[in-house]
Amino acid sequence: MKRDIEAIGMVELNSIAAGIMTADEMVKVAPVTLIAAMTICPGKYISLVGGEVSAVESSVRRGKEVGSEFMVDSLFIPNIHVDVFPAIMGTADVGEIKALGVIETFSVAASIIAGDGAAKAAKVRLKDLRLAQGLAGKSFVTMTGDVSDVTAGVDVGVGLIKPTGMLVKSVVIPRPHGDLKGKLG
Q: Which domains does the chain have, with CATH numbers?
């Protein structure tokens, strides 16, 4: 992650047109970097920004105002964990997969919040953070580490998003079979 990005923020909308307009307003209102502005399944749009904490907070506030009618979810995370961006980009090198934790959500924002929280609270490595592409709008985060650490990470991640109603399912697999490990990427 770039060190000049202290925080990230995102709005997730169920309108592409409103999403494009919202992304524009988010970068106009504060000096932030537009990390991603794109369509995701099924016809949703995400605008992800990064920068200094106060700028990102202002940008997300404006995004929520502009896109309020079409809002699915949003996030604001100061001091984002360093594992989040590699997991999103599919470049995370986690080494040996001892135990595997999976948190499946109904929104991209919820998966990022859960993954960041898990990585900050437990000794886990984020393996993958899939952002709704080909998932009918759902998203998921995978993590690895010792069983107790993965269990703690999943518990924290779930605890952060369960109250929002965005949790689909979570699991901890203590010793994934070698065939499964090979298919995880």
A: 7-78 (3.30.70.1710), 84-183 (3.30.70.1710)
Q: What is the pLDDT of residue 185?
A: 54
- Determine contact, residues 66/24, Cβ cutoff 8 Å: no
pLDDT digits (tens, 9 = 90+) for 26-55: 999 999 999 999 999 889 999 999 999 999
Q: Where are the alpha helices (DSSP H) in the chain?
A: 16-29, 53-66, 84-89, 108-121, 147-161, 178-183
Is the pLDDT at 1 greater than 50? The verdict is: no
Residue 57 to residue 64: CA distance in whole angstroms: 11
The structure's pTM equals: 0.88
C-beta atoms surrounding 115 within 10 Å: 31
The mean-pLDDT minimum among 88-92, 132-136, 167-171 falls in 132-136
Which is nearest to 142 in space by CA: 163, 158, 128?
128
Cis status, amide bond into 176, omega within 30 of 0 = no
Residue type, 32: V
